[in-house]
């Protein structure tokens, strides 16, 4: 395909001209001939300097030595500054130290955002305050974090010193102490306590006079005690919170259990009420049926008594006496039976129901016997022959009782008929 391209494009694919050969200007390093062979430094030793005439070697300062040197220089400068401040420090002639020193309370570690009115409100609970002096920085004008509180009575200052130590103000626990600059002889502040006088070379603790070390130990002990008290207070607060949470949880569970029990009791009461109402309805229904049956049986029994063929006295227990079904004795017995039945247990009630059922059966059986006697009286003995005409009343009753309580003997054909289902 390239042969069909125009000449100007074919020129782009043409190879370049070969590189021309040029002879080297000099020999290569490995081709050069060395006239002088390699040798050592022995010929040049005489040119060296004599070691005895050489200066001593200088030793360079290491990093650790440089840091130690700077630390010593800093300590020396600080010692000079402390000595100068000690000469100028006189708490008894300080113009800022006013009022009675034995009524003044020192408060440190105060939050920088705490105001003088806030301090007054916090410390007035121990007694009336005469003056509050908060210390500010001279260069920046910001609070330094400590103040002096002068009370009107010394006992109030002692009460605040005893109870206000470790009190939390604006999220920080303050340190409370008495003013020791004017009350303790030889006492010096911490910034002026640790220094080594150049004259003696001894530490401050070896110098005669009051030493600041016991004060530092006392401050450390007090700080440790404050931290322990703070931890104990926090633990006690957490225990109270956990106990309150447990009490609330138990009270909620008790309320829930009580509500559940009340619901169950209400359900049981409703169930008992429904059961009692159903029992009372059933009892009333049975009473109505029994009274209707007794009333119907009494009307049917009047005819045999008029015919002179009354049932014998030792007949079935379903037959009533001369007082009739609505006699006063039967009514009294019914009332007593109902009263006793209301106080009986479930088993006795079941027994009573069985007894009532048996009595109803006997009563129906007696009604059937009275109907048979009435039919015989009407027929006058000239009716159909049922196979029992040669038997008397007692024999017929015995025959019916021997056949069982579930059936009766029909007067038409003399066959045993089953009783109607209840």
Automatic annotation (TrEMBL):
GO MF terms on file? mRNA binding; U1 snRNA binding
What subcellular compartments does it reside in? Nucleus
* Domain RRM: start-end pairs: 103-181
Biological process terms from the Gene Ontology for this record are: mRNA splicing, via spliceosome
Classify the source by domain of life.
Answer: Eukaryota
Ribonucleoprotein as a keyword of this entry, yes or no, is yes
Composition bias of kind Basic and acidic residues appears in 60-79, 214-239, 254-271, 279-295, 328-378
Pfam families hit by this protein: RRM_1, U1snRNP70_N
**Would you name any one GO CC term?**
precatalytic spliceosome
Spell out the residue ranges making up region: Disordered: 48-79, 186-422
Name the keywords, alphabetized: Nucleus, Ribonucleoprotein, RNA-binding
Q: Where is the composition biased (Basic residues)?
A: 240-253
Q: Under what name is this protein listed? A: U1 small nuclear ribonucleoprotein 70 kDa
What gene is this protein a product of?
SNRNP70
